[in-house]
Amino acid sequence: MCGRYVMARAVGDLLADFDAELENEIALEKSWNVAPTDAVPIVLERLVEDNLKRQLHVAKWGLVPSWAKDPKGGARLINARSETLLEKPSFKKAAVARRCAVPADGYYEWKKGEGKSKQPYYVHPGDGHGLVFAGLYEWWKDQSASPDDPGRWLLSMSILTADTPTAESARTRRSASVFDELTALHDRVPLPMGTETMEAWLDPREKDAAGLVELVRSRAHDAAADWTIDPVGAAVGNVRNNSPELIEPVEGLF
User: Fold this and answer.
1) Model's pTM, two decimal places?
2) Phi and psi angles of residue 92, each rounded to the nearest 5 degrees, phi first
3) In 3D, which of 207, 204, 182, 184 has the Cα closest to residue 192?
């Protein structure tokens, strides 16, 4: 799954990396400990007067469906299971029309040991470049807010996940994947995208949601080919801790 991640790039860097533009000015703080309900950057594409525009926005992590009575339930929808999202009312419309890319530098996962001991790991690209997860986004309107209140619209997002491969599935592929190592940490992983996959995923003119989900799933191994896994300190477990030191490798507990 994906419950904590790192996003420590500046707005200008993201605009350049994704060849995107801003619809409105945004404020974005670097974070080495992104947690559910935090404000995070997403990249999406929109048709504006028949012109395709790629934009950088800030969204709340935890999708709030447009029909929700209030935004409180978004904290439970930080991840969307790729196997079933087209069957879920919370996700199926977004999968057809509101797909996004979620920039990240890496993410955290925990491995359980004996008793209550847990070892956090930082999963990230090996050469230091960023990665991007497949995501969905939604706009929710606060019906109680006045029409001139700029905060009456809430933008939120969710990250797609999938089952981690088993050892048996690894033997059917020509080479091993870091996903096989991740199996020892958790039974689910966030789905990364390469450039070509992202181009297809973001295009709002494409309505074959099932085909796009399968495309992302089928190419996830290639997108994660250079990922590495480092044990890190227990401080990341507290959301109040947020500094570059959180991703520094340490000696693992087990």
Assistant:
1) 0.93
2) -65, -40
3) 182
Q: Are 161 and 189 in contact (CB under 8 A)?
A: yes
pLDDT band (50, 70, 90) for residue 172: low
How far is Cα 41 from Cα 133, in angstroms, rounded to an integer?
A: 12
Q: What is the helix, strand, coil percentage profile of the chain, to 5?
A: 25, 35, 40
Which residue type does 44 have?
A: L
Length of the chain: 254
Angle at 250 between CA 245 and CA 252, to 5 degrees: 140
Is the CA virtual torsion 242, 246, 252, 254 positive or negative?
Answer: positive
Question: What is the pLDDT at residue 167?
Answer: 46
Between the alpha carbon of residue 96 and those of residues 86, 134, 158, 213, the distances in Å are: 9, 13, 14, 10
